[in-house]
């Protein structure tokens, strides 16, 4: 029951070594690793696989961090947990808090998160505060509130979140019989997940469990790309003031983990790339049409892989694993807008590969 069948706690000696009866789990992880199919052809890769973290209990990779974060909250005797979120963190936290008997408080940017995620936060009983401002404002506010009211903060600034998310990489390697891919490609928002991936790989390497270092490509949406800007221009870090993107999960201008992220990328000889709104949504159409499906932010992995292949950075023969971070059902508005081929004026996106619905009069 519980911890032994979790795709996170299976590796607990490398994560957080607690007795099973102290663990809060929904048997997260154990997600599939798909051949990318059409999305691989689209990216120009012969060996492209997609790790579908949208198949977690609440539909995103956040569950791997949250099982660990809520376990830590209980371990340290917290009663209330909180987070700022673009949606998935809040959905996950509200669920794990409900499972473990903790109260949860959620700070979300008003009107700026996908409907599926807001629905989950409300359904699981999270106290939901809609903040007038963007995610970065909500993040600053929740840090202040947690500090003043002694509430346990469960954003990825919390090290236990990062520890749990290391298991994405561990599980991919186990699925590949411990063969290390040449590249991981992963979306970047608040920059916790790629930090977790590189930290996990470094630990396996230092322990001698793997003897090859996979390169990591972090992909940001062009309108929310502070890490990409500093990387490309060799300039000091500067937050983006008004982040924009249809991939609302990663609409973040001042990511809390940018320094850790950079340290990991330096270790693995990684790269940072940015993708346009159109590139994200066209890549998403391919992931969806491959029968796999994922939310917009996730598809940065495929859009970014294509761009890096086209630029000659990733070899078309390389073995590449893209991380799909969230479920296709999280953001139905983005899907339907694209396939109805309605120009998203605000984002300048067209349904290039639209599967237009037909209207038939049956009256
Ligand atoms: N993909 C999805 C679907 C996400 O929800 C997020 C982050 C990311 C990628 C980026 O991961 O922040 O570790 O770089 N969502 C957070 C949230 C910010 O509040 O749900 P990251």
UniProtKB/TrEMBL annotation:
One of its GO terms (molecular function) is pyridoxal phosphate binding. GO terms for biological process: threonine biosynthetic process. It catalyses: O-phospho-L-homoserine + H2O = L-threonine + phosphate. Its cofactor is pyridoxal 5'-phosphate. Pathway: Amino-acid biosynthesis; L-threonine biosynthesis; L-threonine from L-aspartate: step 5/5. It is an enzyme of class 4 (lyase). Residues 24-326 form the Tryptophan synthase beta chain-like PALP domain. Its EC number is 4.2.3.1. The modification N6-(pyridoxal phosphate)lysine is found at residue 62. Keywords: Amino-acid biosynthesis, Lyase, Pyridoxal phosphate, Threonine biosynthesis. Belongs to the threonine synthase family. This is Threonine synthase.
């Amino acid at each position: 029951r519980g911890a032994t069948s979790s795709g996170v706690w299976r590796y607990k000696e490398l994560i957080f070594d607690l007795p099973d009866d102290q663990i809060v789990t929904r048997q997260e992880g154990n997600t599939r690793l798909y051949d990318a199919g059409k999305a691989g052809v689209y990216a120009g890769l012969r060996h492209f696989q997609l790790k579908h973290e949208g198949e977690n209990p609440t539909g995103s990779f956040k569950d791997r961090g949250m099982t660990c974060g809520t376990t830590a909250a209980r371990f340290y005797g917290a009663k209330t947990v909180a987070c700022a979120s673009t949606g998935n963190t809040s959905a996950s936290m509200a669920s794990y808090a409900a499972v473990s008997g903790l109260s949860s408080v959620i700070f979300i940017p008003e009107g700026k998160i996908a409907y599926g995620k807001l629905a989950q936060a409300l359904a699981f009983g999270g106290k939901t505060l809609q903040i007038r401002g963007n995610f970065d404002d909500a993040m600053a506010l929740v840090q202040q509130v947690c500090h003043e009211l002694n509430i346990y903060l469960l954003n990825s600034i919390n090290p236990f979140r990062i520890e749990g998310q290391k298991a994405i990489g561990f599980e991919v390697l186990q699925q590949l019989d411990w063969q290390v891919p040449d590249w991981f490609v992963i979306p970047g928002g608040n920059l916790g997940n790629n930090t977790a991936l590189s930290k996990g790989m470094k630990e396996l390497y230092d322990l001698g469990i793997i003897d090859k270092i996979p390169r990591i490509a972090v992909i940001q949406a062009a309108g929310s790309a502070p890490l990409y800007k500093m990387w490309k221009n060799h300039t000091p870090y500067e937050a983006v003031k008004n982040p924009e993107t249809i991939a609302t999960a990663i609409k973040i201008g001042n990511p809390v983990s940018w320094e850790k992220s950079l340290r990991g990328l330096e270790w693995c000889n990684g790269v940072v790339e940015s993708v346009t709104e159109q590139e994200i949504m066209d890549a998403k159409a391919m992931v969806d049409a491959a029968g796999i499906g994922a939310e917009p932010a996730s598809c940065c992995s495929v859009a970014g892989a294509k761009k890096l292949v086209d630029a000659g950075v990733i070899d078309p023969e390389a073995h590449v694993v893209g991380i799909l971070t969230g479920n296709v059902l999280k953001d139905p508005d983005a899907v339907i807008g694209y396939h109805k081929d309605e120009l998203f004026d605000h984002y300048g996106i067209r349904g290039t590969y639209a599967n237009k619905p037909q209207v038939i009069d049956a009256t």
